[in-house]
Amino acid sequence: MISMNYLAHLLAARTDWPWPDSLPDGTRISRPGEGLLVVEPADAAFDLCLSSGIHGNETAPVELAARLLQAVLDGSLPARARILFAFGNPAALRSNKRYLDDDLNRLFGKPAEQSGSGPAAVRARELERAVEDFFAVSGSRWRLHYDLHTAIRGSQIEKFAIYPHPGDQAFDPAEIARLAACGIEAVLLQSKPSPTFSYFSRQHCGAHGFTLELGKARPFGQNQAVNLDLLEAELRRLIGGEKRDYAVSTAHPKLFRVAREVIKQTDAFKLHLADAVENFTELAPGYVLAEDGDERFVVAEQGARIVFPNSKVKNGLRAGLLVVPAVL
Ligand SMILES: O=C(O)CCC(=O)N[C@@H](CCC(=O)O)C(=O)O
Ligand SMILES: [Zn+2]
After folding, report:
1. N or C: which end of the chain has fewer CB within 10 A?
2. CB under 8 Å to 114, separation ≥6 — which residues?
3. How far, in Å, CA of 30 to CA of 188, rounded?
4. Where residue 276 sits, what CATH number does that domain have?
């Protein structure tokens, strides 16, 4: 039994490795980089990447992933799937900040001339390599990537997912049903390219990739308000090699598609939403959502709702998503 806590070890930036590189049942543990652990049982049913802490102030997912990893390491949750645990941004986690130099989740799949060469860009390349190497040996095995986040604002829908399904790829109702079983109440279908980790694994690694939003961002130790029991139960089953096939239902979760992205172009950008406006607040057609110099961003869609409004992003980046109801 190993009693040391992996998360405390990571947050303390320790470089020693007090765990064995293989568990008593033969499961191998390898570490392709800081905050990256690959768990490989002898007979893997499928391959699962579980990432968290891509944003350093989003701690509930990190606590959940660390708890699951700890259970694998101490033998109480024997792994029967190959798993890549990726704690995305250890430096930002140590500072409880969304990001330090650049937003990591805007740097995936970007050429060097666009992403620069700062620490976040370097980390994005390391994460890309880790997930590509991980799935490169999956062969015909099923591949799943859940990238776990929490949101800056409160939300009318507490737990939701973003489902990147690039234009040429179909979305999978069975995976939406799995998300519902995880307690996910809404799914946003995103067909346009996105510089996010889940889009990258979907587009470049053949994985079912999803971003999961799990309540509001709070510091470590203050995440009791969000109930992740259903998600944790499904992840425990997946780690144990059990892949359930859930019945497809059109009633649940609610489906939306991303109608438009609001991009902040200049320092003059102004968002006409109070800080207290929650994710999924409906905006009436004609509402002037934002202004950016001479540009006005006017809501045109019926039933449009705003998600992730944020005027503090760097120029050129997404300052919000307008989503509209969708059907399967
Ligand atoms: O609350 C917010 O404004 C952001 C929460 C968050 O980090 N969300 C992810 C979503 C990624 C995606 O679109 O798949 C992000 O903004 O990176
Ligand atoms: Zn995030």
Report:
1. N
2. none
3. 34
4. 2.40.50.630
